Amino acid sequence: MTEELPRIERHEAADRAGKAALRAAHDLTGALSEDGDDVPEPVVLRRGGPHRSLEGLSALIDEALAENEALAEDATPREDEALRENEALRENEALREDEALRENEALRENEALRENEALRESAALEENGGTAGGSVAGT
Q1: Got the DSSP string for 10-51?
Q2: How many domains are there within the chain?
Q3: 136 or 61, which is more confident
Q4: Running DSSP on this structure, what letter comes out for residue 130?
Q5: Which domain holds residue 41?
Q6: Is 88 among the domain residues?
Q7: What is the DSSP string of 67-111?
Q8: Fewer Cβ in 10 A, N or C end of the chain?
Q9: Environment class of residue 40 by beta-carbon count within 10 Å: exposed (0-12), middle (13-18) or buried (19+)?
Q10: Considering the domain boundaries, does residue 99 fall inside one?
Q11: Which pLDDT value is given to residue 36?
Q12: Residue 26 CB coordination number (10 Å)
């Protein structure tokens, strides 16, 4: 009754691959924790996922590459739009600075005109014989 079960090469190969994968995961964890400062989480081997053939793996890689290309193409118009918006903001800021400079210049000119008028009035009063207060006091 205790007959030996027949050897199934596929199962033995899966066992060998599983042992090799577990050893590799263990070695990766050891190598990652060699620096001693930051001990990472252990590398975990998941065998419950879908099994892929080489063709399936190739299709998965192609799909990921196509997705990356689509994202890159989608990001390019957004980047162009952001650049245009940034340029518009810079132009707007430059216009505001120019306007502020012109306003500041106008204020300086206005101040200079007031000073000139005050000097003229002062000179005119001195020519007329004194200050306005002196002429009022003299009457």
Answers
A1: HHHHHHHHHHHHHHHHHHHHHHHTTTSSS-PPPP----SS--
A2: 1
A3: 61
A4: S
A5: 8-51
A6: no
A7: HHHHHHHHHHHHHHHHHHHHHHHHHHHHHHHHHHHHHHHHHHHHH
A8: N
A9: exposed
A10: no
A11: 64
A12: 13
Q: What is the pLDDT of residue 37?
A: 60
Say how far apart CA 89 and CA 105 lie, in whole Å.
24
The CB-based long-range contact list for 77-83 (8 Å cut-off, 24+ gap) reads none
Tokens standing for 8?
A: 């199934």
Dist. CA 83–CA 77, nearest whole Å: 10
32 assigned to some structural domain: yes
Token pair 């001195």 in the structure block, residue: 126
Q: Encoding tokens for residue 121?
A: 């009035």
3-state class percentages of the chain: helix first, strand second, coil last, to nearest 5: 75, 0, 25
pLDDT at 88 over 70: yes
pTM over 0.85: no
Ramachandran sector of residue 130 (left: φ over 0; alpha: ψ -120 to 50; beta: rest): left
